[in-house]
Write a structure and sequence with these properties.
Elements: E1 4-18, E2 25-39, E3 43-47, H1 54-62, E4 69-74, E5 77-78, H2 84-93, E6 94-97, H3 111-121, H4 130-140, H5 157-169, E7 175-179, H6 187-204, E8 207-211, H7 215-221, E9 224-229, E10 232-238, H8 239-244, H9 249-256, H10 297-300, E11 308-311, E12 314-316, H11 321-325
Parallel strand pairs: 3-8, 3-9, 6-7, 7-8
Antiparallel strand pairs: 1-2, 1-4, 4-5, 9-10, 10-12, 11-12
Helix pairs in contact: 3-4, 3-5, 4-5, 5-6
């Protein structure tokens, strides 16, 4: 049985925002009460529209941001209680692959030093073996070892993302948080990077948190999926269960937007009206009721639905999920 690697408990993160030069700061609710867990060897997908809080949650799990409320536990220990030495060890066990392969690499550094810098910082390499270890990482992710001394501008987007992947692997992490790792790449290159990540997961016994807009990527890579809307999780469960038997209207709309490549197959597209509400002033009741085609004003506009287990391992935050989708 897999053990829990990282877990959040009712985590909230607010950012103060001023709406005018003389106005008081208002709290922007980027992450608003998220509880989830990620087990060893598991890939968890995090999906939702832009502004739903996915990247902020990823930064909280990395320890780059501290939650305003709630706790984050890594291997059973709360992050806020880690000592300096324990925090350094945590940094080696959790790494990130960034969305933009162009801005995430230092243009003034050779790629060998970009990949090897984490090893130097954490004292994981000796001067005599440094180049050998970096070249081995480069070759494992599909780069040429002879390109050690080249600079990022000499590489394509797909090659730069491979550099970012090698950098994340340099400290032998247990968890990699991948924030839209293929969204900036061509489709043919996306498939190569996805297959590489799958191979590395098996080879290095990695766990992944995959943040993505593309639900077809999540379906291919992830064991479980969590759908976020306005800073909260509205549905979570095994990927096969969510795709084959969704229990939230927002998930229904997201899945209806996936292109269908099967000849002759037709699928009704659900177009949500209006924009996602401002996290500065979320609507009362269910946060999705202003765009939900199934909303009932007497309930949805007044009561906030809790994330409940509707079926074994399958959670949804909807007052009428079992009535609508069963």
């Amino acid at each position: 049985m897999n053990t829990t690697l990282i877990e959040t408990r009712d985590v909230k993160k607010f950012f103060p925002v001023k709406t005018g030069p003389f106005a008081r700061s208002l709290p922007l609710k980027a992450v608003n009460g998220v509880s989830l867990r990620l087990d060893t060897g598991e890939t968890l997908g995090l999906a939702g529209e832009s502004g739903s809080g996915k990247s902020t949650l990823g930064k909280l799990l990395l320890g780059l941001l501290r939650p305003d409320e709630g706790d984050i536990h890594f291997l059973g220990r709360p992050l806020h209680s880690l000592t300096r030495d324990e925090l350094l060890s945590f940094r080696t066990m959790v790494q990130m692959i960034f969305q933009d392969p162009y801005s995430s690499l230092n243009p003034r550094m050779q790629i060998g030093d970009i990949i090897g810098e984490p090893m130097r910082i954490h004292g994981l390499s000796s001067p005599s073996r440094y180049r050998e270890q970096v070249v081995a990482l480069m070759e494992r992710v599909g780069l040429v070892g002879d390109h050690f001394s080249r600079y990022p501008h000499e590489f394509s987007g797909g090659q730069r993302q491979r550099i970012g992947i090698a950098r994340a692997l340099a400290v032998s992490p247990r968890l990699i948080i991948a924030d839209e790792p293929v969204s900036a790449l061509d489709l043919s290159i996306q498939a190569q990077i996805i297959n590489l990540l799958q191979e590395l997961k098996t080879e290095f016994s990695l766990s992944f948190l995959l943040i993505a807009h593309d639900l077809s990527v999540i379906r291919h890579m992830c064991d479980r999926i969590a759908i976020m809307y306005l800073g909260a999780i509205v549905e979570m469960g095994r990927t096969v269960d969510v795709f084959n038997g969704f229990l939230h209207p927002y998930t229904e709309a997201l899945l209806s937007a996936i292109p269908n490549v099967v000849q002759g197959a037709r699928k009704q597209r659900i177009v949500l009206t209006g924009d996602i509400p401002s996290p500065l002033a979320p609507p009362p009741g269910c946060p999705f009721h202003t765009r939900c085609p199934h909303a009932r004003p007497d309930t949805c506009a007044l009561l906030v639905p809790s994330l409940e287990e509707k079926a074994p391992g399958h959670y949804a935050a909807c007052h009428f999920s079992t009535e609508l989708f069963r």
